[in-house]
Design a protein that fits this description.
547 residues; alpha+beta; five-stranded antiparallel β-sheet; four-stranded mixed β-sheet; 21 helices; disordered N terminus
């Protein structure tokens, strides 16, 4: 217990040193509060430097924040998107201990050879190339967790949650709901430490792309997981020989690759509701045989059917520059954090979308447009779910890769023909007969239960036992405001009464002069009234009600 407290204190000192070295003024202004629409954050570059110096958990936090354009401005998103897990590799002697403890059998029985030199090193794990023992000698990639990383992450998570609870007392912390954000990050990072979850995500994505009619499933692959060797701290998967897709100019082949990627992600996002959420160029490989591979499924996104439908409609509303429909869908996706001015929200969207009038689809950067829509949403006090940011970040990465492969690539030109088929799927369903039968059963149940329910309603009306439960939203702030006003009014009356009493006492004279006790009483009353009046004025000024 004592050693744990000592380690935590040492970590707190380390964090304090990093913050002070990069400018304490930013954090001081953050902790002292401010207007929700003017978050007092460090500049993007300084924030990035702080996160890098603080280590793996904070680098992952920066990567998570880079997927939240609903929370941060484009400048922060751009800067934090450059955060990569570029850390020095751990010595093979230390990694070997983790590898041996994670295998079901001795290392020499499982692998014919393992390269001691890592292919890549990250903040959570590093990759080594190996060859399985046996006649086939299949080549595999080993993702091995860094020794001691769990304890470091657990300690940093506790500190982050403590910081979030502290900052949540400010307007900034309440507006951005930092406690929920810290919990979301903690859950995501804990899942990333369990490689079996990444293996399951990889397998699900692999099955999805093998059962689609939108692309040739033989041309886009996902590495196969070797489950008999995979554990919580070790992920063993098929080795794929290739290079990042943007390592070289693909020439005429770039266009078909871009189309295939867009179709594959259309399938993942709008049909399956499960998508690879980090399709940056380093996670898309061009293999030696000409196929394309998606790797690293550590970050995935999930969308429920209702959200999928709303996002499809939102895309069409943005393409058609329909500000009213755009604002309606945003309100269905999110929730207001303050009193909402719907007219202002629609006016902001209209002003934003008007900039794109008379432009062809090929001239529109849809990733930037989506970012600006989310920024207007945040400005108007509407909080959208976290997976919305992940969705927009995925589209941004995808569009960036596609335009790098083919500068003339038209994202909406490729997506629009797919939307009609998507609406057909959503309207009719993949199993129309089964859906029709379920609807018929619902109608039958409704027809049988309706007479009984109507009879019950009429009986209650006749016996006057019908009760109405009405909940009016937004009354608590009004009630608190009225209470404050009533309290201040009562306080003002009390102060006035004290002053009047002091004046009456001081004017009383017996034998031509005021008795000394009455003078003291009058002075005390007047001093008390002055103090209370001054306190009332200060409290009103601090509340900002005079502005």
């Amino acid at each position: 217990m004592l050693s744990g407290l000592t380690q935590t204190s040492a970590r707190q000192r380390e964090i304090a040193e990093v913050v002070l070295r990069n400018g304490w003024g930013y954090m001081r202004r953050l902790l002292t509060g401010g207007k929700p629409d003017e978050p007092r954050l460090p500049t993007p570059r300084i924030l990035r430097n702080i996160l890098v110096e603080l280590g793996p958990a904070f680098v992952k936090l920066g990567q998570l924040l880079s997927t939240r354009p609903d929370l941060l401005s484009p400048e922060y998103i751009t800067e934090l998107s450059t955060l990569q897990d570029e850390v020095p590799p751990v010595a093979w002697e230390e990694v070997e201990i983790v590898l041996r403890s994670s295998l079901p059998r001795p290392l020499e029985e499982v692998f014919a050879e393992v390269s001691a030199i890592p292919v890549a090193a990250g903040s959570i794990a590093q990759i080594h190339r190996a060859r399985l023992a046996g006649p086939e000698g299949r080549e595999v990639a080993l993702k091995i967790q860094r020794p001691g990383i769990e304890a470091i992450v657990r300690q940093d998570m506790q500190l982050l949650q403590s910081i979030a609870e502290l900052v949540s007392r400010t307007d900034f912390g309440q507006y951005y709901d930092l406690v929920s954000l810290a919990e979301e990050f903690s859950t995501a990072l804990q899942a990333e430490l369990d490689f079996t979850e990444e293996g399951q995500s990889t397998e699900q994505l692999r099955d999805s792309l093998q059962n689609t009619d939108l692309i040739d499933s033989k041309q886009l692959i996902v590495p196969e997981i070797i489950w008999e060797l995979t554990s919580q701290r070790l992920l063993v998967m098929q080795w794929l020989s290739g290079e990042p897709v943007l390592a070289h100019d693909r020439g005429p082949a770039g266009g078909p690759i871009a189309v295939m990627l867009v179709r594959a992600f259309f399938q993942q996002i709008y049909i399956d509701g499960f998508f690879h959420a980090d399709p940056h160029p380093g996670n898309i490989f061009y293999l030696q045989d000409g196929r394309i591979a998606l790797i690293d499924c550590g970050m995935v996104g999930r969308l429920d059917p209702r959200t999928q439908q709303l996002l499809t409609q939102q895309m069409l509303a943005i393409v058609n520059l329909d500000a009213r429909r755009c604002s309606q869908i945003i309100l269905e996706l999110g929730e207001p954090t303050k009193r909402l001015n719907l007219v202002q929200l629609e006016r902001d969207y209209d002003r934003l979308l008007r900039r794109y009038y008379n432009r062809s689809l090929s001239q529109i950067n849809f990733a930037q447009l989506f970012y600006e829509v989310l920024r207007s949403t945040r400005k108007n006090g509407v909080r959208v779910p976290g997976n919305m940011g992940l969705y927009v970040k995925t589209l941004a990465n995808l569009e960036g890769v596609a335009r790098s492969l083919d500068p003339e690539f038209n994202l909406m030109g490729e997506v629009r023909p797919l939307v009609a088929d998507l609406f057909r799927r959503q309207l009719i369903g993949s199993t129309p007969l089964q859906d029709l039968m379920m609807t018929a059963l619902d109608l039958k149940s409704l027809s049988l239960e309706s007479p009984r329910q109507i009879e019950t309603l009429l009986d209650r009306l006749a016996t006057e036992n019908l009760q109405w439960n009405v909940a009016l939203r937004g009354l608590d702030p009004l009630r608190r405001s009225l209470d404050d006003s009533a309290n201040r009014l009562s306080f003002s009356v009390l102060v006035g009464s004290l002053i009047l009493g002091a004046a009456i006492i001081s004017s009383s004279d017996i034998g031509g002069q005021t008795p000394v006790p009455l003078v003291w009483i009058s002075s005390v009353l007047f001093a008390t009234a002055s103090f209370l009046g001054l306190w009332l004025i200060v409290s009103i000024l601090r509340s900002g009600r005079l502005r």
